[in-house]
Amino acid sequence: MSDNWTLLHARLHQTLRQRQLLPKQERILVALSGGQDSLCLTKLLLDLQPKWEWCLAIAHCDHRWSSDTGISAHVQQIVQFWGLPFYLKVADSLTETEAAARQWRYQALSEIAREEGFKFIVTGHTKSDRAETILYNLLRGSGADGLSSLTWHRLLTPTIRLVRPLLDVTRQETLQFCQQLELPIWFDAANDNLKYARNRIRNELIPYLRNNFNPQVEKSLAQTAELLRADAEYLENQAKQLLEQAIVPKQNKLNRFCLRKAPIALQRRALRQFLYRIIDKTPTFEQIEAIIYLIDAPNKTRTSTLPGGAIAQVEGEWIVFIQISY
Protein backbone atom coordinates (compact mmCIF):
# COMPACT_ATOMS: atom_id res chain seq x y z
CA MET A 1 0.00 0.00 0.00
CA SER A 2 1.27 3.47 -0.88
CA ASP A 3 2.27 5.79 1.97
CA ASN A 4 0.86 8.67 -0.09
CA TRP A 5 -2.80 7.75 0.40
CA THR A 6 -5.00 10.65 -0.75
CA LEU A 7 -8.68 11.55 -0.92
CA LEU A 8 -8.54 10.61 -4.61
CA HIS A 9 -7.49 7.08 -3.65
CA ALA A 10 -10.51 6.84 -1.35
CA ARG A 11 -12.86 8.27 -3.97
CA LEU A 12 -11.74 5.84 -6.65
CA HIS A 13 -11.96 2.90 -4.24
CA GLN A 14 -15.54 3.92 -3.41
CA THR A 15 -16.43 4.41 -7.08
CA LEU A 16 -15.14 0.96 -7.97
CA ARG A 17 -17.18 -0.59 -5.16
CA GLN A 18 -20.40 1.28 -5.93
CA ARG A 19 -20.32 0.85 -9.70
CA GLN A 20 -18.68 -2.59 -9.68
CA LEU A 21 -16.40 -1.56 -12.54
CA LEU A 22 -13.38 -3.81 -11.94
CA PRO A 23 -13.90 -7.13 -10.10
CA LYS A 24 -11.35 -8.43 -7.64
CA GLN A 25 -8.48 -10.63 -8.86
CA GLU A 26 -9.01 -9.69 -12.53
CA ARG A 27 -6.33 -9.22 -15.16
CA ILE A 28 -6.46 -5.54 -16.09
CA LEU A 29 -4.70 -3.75 -18.96
CA VAL A 30 -4.09 -0.05 -18.27
CA ALA A 31 -3.72 2.28 -21.26
CA LEU A 32 -0.90 4.68 -20.35
CA SER A 33 -0.22 7.57 -22.71
CA GLY A 34 2.20 9.32 -20.37
CA GLY A 35 -0.09 12.30 -19.84
CA GLN A 36 -1.45 13.40 -16.48
CA ASP A 37 -4.81 11.59 -16.65
CA SER A 38 -3.52 8.12 -17.52
CA LEU A 39 -0.54 8.57 -15.21
CA CYS A 40 -2.85 9.48 -12.34
CA LEU A 41 -5.09 6.48 -13.07
CA THR A 42 -2.18 4.05 -13.27
CA LYS A 43 -0.72 5.20 -9.95
CA LEU A 44 -4.14 5.01 -8.26
CA LEU A 45 -4.75 1.47 -9.51
CA LEU A 46 -1.24 0.40 -8.52
CA ASP A 47 -1.82 1.69 -4.99
CA LEU A 48 -5.25 0.03 -4.79
CA GLN A 49 -3.92 -3.27 -6.13
CA PRO A 50 -3.34 -4.85 -2.68
CA LYS A 51 -7.00 -4.26 -1.78
CA TRP A 52 -8.36 -5.64 -5.05
CA GLU A 53 -5.72 -8.27 -5.86
CA TRP A 54 -5.62 -7.33 -9.54
CA CYS A 55 -3.01 -8.45 -12.02
CA LEU A 56 -2.05 -5.15 -13.65
CA ALA A 57 -0.19 -4.55 -16.91
CA ILE A 58 0.50 -1.45 -18.98
CA ALA A 59 -0.14 -0.85 -22.68
CA HIS A 60 1.18 2.11 -24.65
CA CYS A 61 0.13 3.09 -28.18
CA ASP A 62 2.71 5.06 -30.18
CA HIS A 63 1.15 6.94 -33.10
CA ARG A 64 4.61 7.77 -34.48
CA TRP A 65 3.61 11.39 -34.99
CA SER A 66 6.25 14.08 -34.78
CA SER A 67 4.84 15.30 -31.45
CA ASP A 68 5.24 11.77 -29.98
CA THR A 69 9.03 11.58 -30.34
CA GLY A 70 10.49 10.13 -27.15
CA ILE A 71 7.20 9.37 -25.44
CA SER A 72 7.43 5.56 -25.71
CA ALA A 73 10.82 5.51 -23.98
CA HIS A 74 9.46 7.87 -21.30
CA VAL A 75 6.48 5.59 -20.60
CA GLN A 76 8.62 2.45 -20.60
CA GLN A 77 10.96 3.99 -18.04
CA ILE A 78 8.01 4.70 -15.73
CA VAL A 79 6.66 1.18 -16.12
CA GLN A 80 10.06 -0.35 -15.39
CA PHE A 81 10.27 1.68 -12.18
CA TRP A 82 6.86 0.32 -11.13
CA GLY A 83 7.80 -3.22 -12.14
CA LEU A 84 4.71 -3.91 -14.26
CA PRO A 85 4.40 -5.93 -17.49
CA PHE A 86 4.57 -3.64 -20.53
CA TYR A 87 3.09 -3.97 -24.01
CA LEU A 88 3.84 -1.56 -26.86
CA LYS A 89 1.95 -1.06 -30.11
CA VAL A 90 3.46 1.15 -32.81
CA ALA A 91 1.41 2.44 -35.74
CA ASP A 92 2.74 1.74 -39.24
CA SER A 93 1.22 4.77 -40.92
CA LEU A 94 -1.52 6.73 -39.24
CA THR A 95 -3.34 9.81 -40.50
CA GLU A 96 -2.92 12.68 -38.06
CA THR A 97 -6.60 13.03 -37.15
CA GLU A 98 -8.38 12.55 -33.84
CA ALA A 99 -10.78 9.98 -35.26
CA ALA A 100 -8.07 7.86 -36.90
CA ALA A 101 -5.93 7.89 -33.75
CA ARG A 102 -8.83 6.92 -31.49
CA GLN A 103 -9.94 4.07 -33.75
CA TRP A 104 -6.39 2.70 -34.04
CA ARG A 105 -5.78 2.91 -30.28
CA TYR A 106 -8.87 0.90 -29.41
CA GLN A 107 -8.01 -1.67 -32.05
CA ALA A 108 -4.43 -1.93 -30.77
CA LEU A 109 -5.53 -2.21 -27.13
CA SER A 110 -8.08 -4.89 -28.03
CA GLU A 111 -5.40 -6.89 -29.85
CA ILE A 112 -3.12 -6.81 -26.81
CA ALA A 113 -5.95 -7.76 -24.47
CA ARG A 114 -7.04 -10.66 -26.67
CA GLU A 115 -3.50 -11.97 -27.18
CA GLU A 116 -2.54 -11.70 -23.50
CA GLY A 117 -5.83 -12.74 -21.90
CA PHE A 118 -7.09 -9.45 -20.39
CA LYS A 119 -10.86 -9.02 -19.99
CA PHE A 120 -10.66 -5.37 -18.92
CA ILE A 121 -8.99 -2.33 -20.52
CA VAL A 122 -8.98 0.88 -18.47
CA THR A 123 -8.39 4.41 -19.74
CA GLY A 124 -7.90 7.72 -17.97
CA HIS A 125 -10.88 9.62 -19.39
CA THR A 126 -12.11 12.21 -16.90
CA LYS A 127 -15.12 14.38 -16.13
CA SER A 128 -13.41 17.06 -18.24
CA ASP A 129 -13.27 14.69 -21.23
CA ARG A 130 -16.94 13.94 -20.73
CA ALA A 131 -17.83 17.63 -20.80
CA GLU A 132 -15.76 18.17 -23.96
CA THR A 133 -17.35 15.14 -25.65
CA ILE A 134 -20.90 16.35 -25.06
CA LEU A 135 -20.03 19.74 -26.61
CA TYR A 136 -18.13 18.14 -29.49
CA ASN A 137 -21.01 15.84 -30.38
CA LEU A 138 -23.62 18.55 -29.86
CA LEU A 139 -21.85 20.70 -32.45
CA ARG A 140 -21.82 17.71 -34.84
CA GLY A 141 -25.59 17.27 -34.51
CA SER A 142 -25.56 14.07 -32.47
CA GLY A 143 -28.64 12.74 -30.69
CA ALA A 144 -28.84 11.63 -27.07
CA ASP A 145 -26.59 8.62 -27.71
CA GLY A 146 -23.77 10.79 -29.05
CA LEU A 147 -24.13 13.32 -26.24
CA SER A 148 -23.75 10.55 -23.67
CA SER A 149 -21.22 8.42 -25.55
CA LEU A 150 -18.40 8.66 -22.99
CA THR A 151 -19.71 6.05 -20.55
CA TRP A 152 -18.30 4.34 -17.47
CA HIS A 153 -17.90 1.09 -19.37
CA ARG A 154 -18.75 -0.57 -22.66
CA LEU A 155 -17.85 -3.69 -24.61
CA LEU A 156 -15.02 -3.32 -27.12
CA THR A 157 -15.43 -6.96 -28.19
CA PRO A 158 -17.79 -9.69 -26.94
CA THR A 159 -15.18 -10.63 -24.32
CA ILE A 160 -13.27 -7.39 -23.61
CA ARG A 161 -14.73 -4.50 -21.64
CA LEU A 162 -13.47 -0.90 -21.72
CA VAL A 163 -13.70 0.82 -18.32
CA ARG A 164 -13.27 4.52 -17.50
CA PRO A 165 -12.93 4.77 -13.70
CA LEU A 166 -12.13 8.53 -13.53
CA LEU A 167 -15.34 10.00 -14.97
CA ASP A 168 -16.03 11.70 -11.62
CA VAL A 169 -12.57 13.31 -11.56
CA THR A 170 -11.61 16.54 -13.34
CA ARG A 171 -8.44 17.14 -15.30
CA GLN A 172 -7.41 19.74 -12.70
CA GLU A 173 -7.61 17.07 -10.02
CA THR A 174 -5.44 14.62 -11.97
CA LEU A 175 -2.85 17.36 -12.44
CA GLN A 176 -2.84 18.17 -8.72
CA PHE A 177 -2.48 14.47 -7.89
CA CYS A 178 0.49 14.04 -10.23
CA GLN A 179 2.16 17.16 -8.87
CA GLN A 180 1.58 16.09 -5.26
CA LEU A 181 3.18 12.69 -5.88
CA GLU A 182 5.83 14.15 -8.21
CA LEU A 183 4.87 11.88 -11.09
CA PRO A 184 6.73 12.52 -14.39
CA ILE A 185 4.01 13.89 -16.67
CA TRP A 186 4.62 13.90 -20.42
CA PHE A 187 3.29 17.19 -21.81
CA ASP A 188 2.12 16.47 -25.35
CA ALA A 189 2.46 19.48 -27.65
CA ALA A 190 -0.38 18.08 -29.80
CA ASN A 191 -2.82 18.92 -26.99
CA ASP A 192 -2.25 22.61 -27.71
CA ASN A 193 -2.67 22.29 -31.49
CA LEU A 194 -5.85 24.23 -32.26
CA LYS A 195 -6.35 22.52 -35.63
CA TYR A 196 -8.01 19.73 -33.61
CA ALA A 197 -11.62 20.52 -32.68
CA ARG A 198 -11.35 18.94 -29.24
CA ASN A 199 -8.37 21.14 -28.40
CA ARG A 200 -10.34 24.26 -29.35
CA ILE A 201 -13.20 23.09 -27.13
CA ARG A 202 -10.77 22.36 -24.28
CA ASN A 203 -8.60 25.47 -24.55
CA GLU A 204 -11.09 28.06 -25.81
CA LEU A 205 -14.76 27.08 -25.52
CA ILE A 206 -14.78 25.49 -22.04
CA PRO A 207 -12.85 28.42 -20.46
CA TYR A 208 -15.22 30.89 -22.17
CA LEU A 209 -18.29 29.04 -20.85
CA ARG A 210 -16.73 28.79 -17.40
CA ASN A 211 -15.90 32.51 -17.23
CA ASN A 212 -19.08 33.86 -18.79
CA PHE A 213 -21.88 31.38 -18.05
CA ASN A 214 -21.19 28.73 -15.42
CA PRO A 215 -18.07 28.28 -13.25
CA GLN A 216 -19.10 24.61 -12.81
CA VAL A 217 -19.71 23.99 -16.51
CA GLU A 218 -17.73 20.72 -16.61
CA LYS A 219 -19.73 19.32 -13.70
CA SER A 220 -23.05 20.38 -15.26
CA LEU A 221 -22.21 18.91 -18.66
CA ALA A 222 -21.02 15.64 -17.11
CA GLN A 223 -24.27 15.37 -15.13
CA THR A 224 -26.21 15.96 -18.35
CA ALA A 225 -24.30 13.16 -20.03
CA GLU A 226 -25.08 10.80 -17.13
CA LEU A 227 -28.81 11.61 -17.30
CA LEU A 228 -28.90 11.22 -21.09
CA ARG A 229 -27.12 7.85 -20.87
CA ALA A 230 -29.82 6.45 -18.59
CA ASP A 231 -32.56 7.76 -20.92
CA ALA A 232 -30.80 6.39 -24.01
CA GLU A 233 -30.36 2.93 -22.51
CA TYR A 234 -34.05 2.74 -21.62
CA LEU A 235 -35.15 3.90 -25.08
CA GLU A 236 -32.75 1.47 -26.80
CA ASN A 237 -34.26 -1.44 -24.88
CA GLN A 238 -37.79 -0.32 -25.74
CA ALA A 239 -36.83 0.10 -29.41
CA LYS A 240 -35.34 -3.39 -29.44
CA GLN A 241 -38.67 -4.79 -28.28
CA LEU A 242 -40.51 -2.78 -30.93
CA LEU A 243 -38.18 -4.06 -33.64
CA GLU A 244 -38.73 -7.65 -32.54
CA GLN A 245 -42.49 -7.13 -32.89
CA ALA A 246 -42.27 -5.45 -36.30
CA ILE A 247 -39.65 -7.57 -38.07
CA VAL A 248 -40.22 -10.79 -39.97
CA PRO A 249 -37.49 -13.23 -38.90
CA LYS A 250 -34.85 -13.87 -41.59
CA GLN A 251 -36.55 -11.44 -43.97
CA ASN A 252 -35.70 -7.82 -44.70
CA LYS A 253 -39.13 -6.37 -44.08
CA LEU A 254 -40.92 -4.51 -41.31
CA ASN A 255 -44.60 -4.24 -40.40
CA ARG A 256 -45.38 -0.56 -40.69
CA PHE A 257 -48.70 -0.88 -38.83
CA CYS A 258 -46.75 -2.11 -35.82
CA LEU A 259 -44.24 0.74 -36.15
CA ARG A 260 -47.04 3.28 -36.58
CA LYS A 261 -48.34 2.65 -33.05
CA ALA A 262 -45.03 3.61 -31.46
CA PRO A 263 -43.76 7.13 -30.61
CA ILE A 264 -41.43 8.70 -33.16
CA ALA A 265 -38.48 8.38 -30.75
CA LEU A 266 -38.86 4.59 -30.68
CA GLN A 267 -39.50 4.43 -34.44
CA ARG A 268 -36.19 6.15 -35.12
CA ARG A 269 -34.24 3.94 -32.75
CA ALA A 270 -35.85 0.71 -33.99
CA LEU A 271 -35.11 1.65 -37.59
CA ARG A 272 -31.54 2.57 -36.75
CA GLN A 273 -31.03 -0.82 -35.11
CA PHE A 274 -32.57 -2.56 -38.14
CA LEU A 275 -30.61 -0.59 -40.74
CA TYR A 276 -27.36 -1.21 -38.87
CA ARG A 277 -27.97 -4.94 -39.24
CA ILE A 278 -28.46 -4.83 -42.99
CA ILE A 279 -26.00 -2.17 -44.14
CA ASP A 280 -23.33 -2.93 -41.49
CA LYS A 281 -22.74 0.73 -40.65
CA THR A 282 -24.46 3.37 -38.59
CA PRO A 283 -27.21 4.93 -40.75
CA THR A 284 -27.41 8.69 -41.17
CA PHE A 285 -30.23 10.86 -39.87
CA GLU A 286 -31.43 11.40 -43.45
CA GLN A 287 -31.55 7.66 -44.16
CA ILE A 288 -33.59 6.97 -41.05
CA GLU A 289 -36.01 9.82 -41.81
CA ALA A 290 -36.52 8.49 -45.34
CA ILE A 291 -37.71 5.18 -43.87
CA ILE A 292 -39.85 6.97 -41.26
CA TYR A 293 -41.70 8.63 -44.15
CA LEU A 294 -42.59 5.18 -45.54
CA ILE A 295 -44.51 4.22 -42.39
CA ASP A 296 -47.48 6.33 -43.55
CA ALA A 297 -46.69 6.57 -47.28
CA PRO A 298 -48.93 5.24 -50.12
CA ASN A 299 -48.37 1.73 -51.49
CA LYS A 300 -45.34 1.33 -53.83
CA THR A 301 -43.63 4.43 -52.44
CA ARG A 302 -39.90 3.83 -52.25
CA THR A 303 -36.64 5.39 -51.19
CA SER A 304 -33.21 4.71 -52.66
CA THR A 305 -31.11 6.66 -50.17
CA LEU A 306 -29.53 3.58 -48.58
CA PRO A 307 -25.92 2.52 -49.25
CA GLY A 308 -25.00 -0.37 -51.49
CA GLY A 309 -27.86 0.01 -53.94
CA ALA A 310 -30.51 -0.88 -51.35
CA ILE A 311 -34.12 0.18 -51.87
CA ALA A 312 -36.91 0.38 -49.28
CA GLN A 313 -40.43 0.08 -50.69
CA VAL A 314 -43.97 0.03 -49.30
CA GLU A 315 -45.83 -3.17 -50.11
CA GLY A 316 -49.18 -3.10 -48.34
CA GLU A 317 -48.60 -3.31 -44.60
CA TRP A 318 -44.88 -3.93 -45.09
CA ILE A 319 -41.74 -1.91 -45.69
CA VAL A 320 -39.60 -4.21 -47.81
CA PHE A 321 -35.87 -3.79 -48.29
CA ILE A 322 -34.56 -4.93 -51.69
CA GLN A 323 -31.07 -5.47 -53.14
CA ILE A 324 -29.34 -5.30 -49.81
CA SER A 325 -25.54 -5.47 -50.02
CA TYR A 326 -23.94 -7.38 -47.19
What does this structure look like?
A hairpin with a 7-residue loop joins strand 8 and strand 9. With 326 residues, this protein is α/β, with parallel strands linked by helices. It has helices at residues 7-19, 36-52, 71-82, 98-116, 127-139, 144-147, 171-180, 197-212, 217-246, 256-260, 264-279, 285-294; strands spanning 27-31, 55-62, 86-90, 120-122, 153-157, 160-163, 253-255, 302-303, 311-315, 318-322. It has a 6-stranded mixed beta sheet with strand order 3-2-1-4-6-5, with helices on both faces. A 4-stranded antiparallel beta sheet has the order 7-10-9-8. The protein folds into 2 domains: 7-221, HUPs (Rossmann fold, 3-Layer(aba) Sandwich), CATH 3.40.50.620; 247-322, Uridine Diphospho-n-acetylenolpyruvylglucosamine Reductase, domain 3 (2-Layer Sandwich), CATH 3.30.465. The longest helix has 30 residues, at 217-246.
